[in-house]
Each structure stands twice: as structure tokens, then as C-alpha cells.
Prior knowledge:
Blueprint: E1 3-15, E2 27-30, E3 33-36, H1 49-62, H2 66-77, H3 83-91, E4 98-107, H4 117-128, E5 135-140, E6 153-165
Parallel strand pairs: 4-5
Antiparallel strand pairs: 1-6, 2-3, 4-6
Helix pairs in contact: 1-3, 2-3
Amino acid sequence: MEYDYLTTIGQDSHRFLEEEFDASSNSIMLGGYPVPFNRQFQANSDGDVILHAITNAISGYTGVNILGGAADVICLEKGIKDSKVYLEEALKYLDKASIIHVSLTIECLRPKLKDHIPSIKKSVADLLGLSEKQIGITATTGEGLTGFGKGEGIQVFALLSFKVPV
């Protein structure tokens, strides 16, 4: 069987709310994994920037905009804030295509992600039905040149590769 191989990019970012919490009892969702942190995202949903960037990259392949479309109905009308549900909705439109690799670049000053990357990678792999070897994650502060690198929020770029039967 012949295949086409396609690549898409997705991006998402969220600012942190000003209010601080106790990091021992508070977390933010990143890739479906709770990362302990003393702030929350300013978002209608759980603000999972990794899953939102992946969802946007899937929309780049399918042409079906989930965020700003179906996710608004799921979140705002049905009250479902879990970004895994939006990702599941996006995956419904893949038809015969399959995701074969995910590369994520995360820009933020905080929280420090180094110790959490293996768990985030496992969570993303499990959600997409991939092996952890098919997920790459890098994190940077961007040398503090943007608001994300200055600690005001988090930005994620997701590059997805697809295998599509011809």
C-alpha cells in the first residue's frame, strides 16, 4: 500500500492568572498530566496548552476547527472543561490517517518542566495511542524575550506527522 506523509503545526498559549495558590495542592494540566504549580491558567477550559496545540495541529490536517468550534459547545454549553475531550473530538475526523510522530516545543519560565517531561510524554503517548518514542518534547525559556519566557504564561508549538493511505 502507498502512503502520503503530511506534517502540520499547531500552537496554543495561555496567560497565568495573577492569584497565587499553594503549589502543594494546586496544579496545571500539561498534556493531560497535572504539574504542581502555584498559578492557574486564564482559560475557559482547563487551559491545557499542550493538548490544545495538538488539537490545533490535527485541525490543520482535517480542516475541522475544534477549538473555537466544537470545543466551545463542549466547554461553554455543556460545561466540560477537560481538554482531553476536545482532543478526542479532533481525533474523530482523522478517517484513515494516523499520527506517527509528535514534536512539542514548550516556552515558559515557570513551572520548571524538566522533571515532568517523562510523565507528560507518557500521558500524550497514551492519549494518542502512540509509543513514548513517537513523542518528542523540548522546553525553553526563550532567553526571556517574550512574556512566556518572563513567566507570564506558557506557549506550545506542536508539529504532527501523519501517515495517510493513498
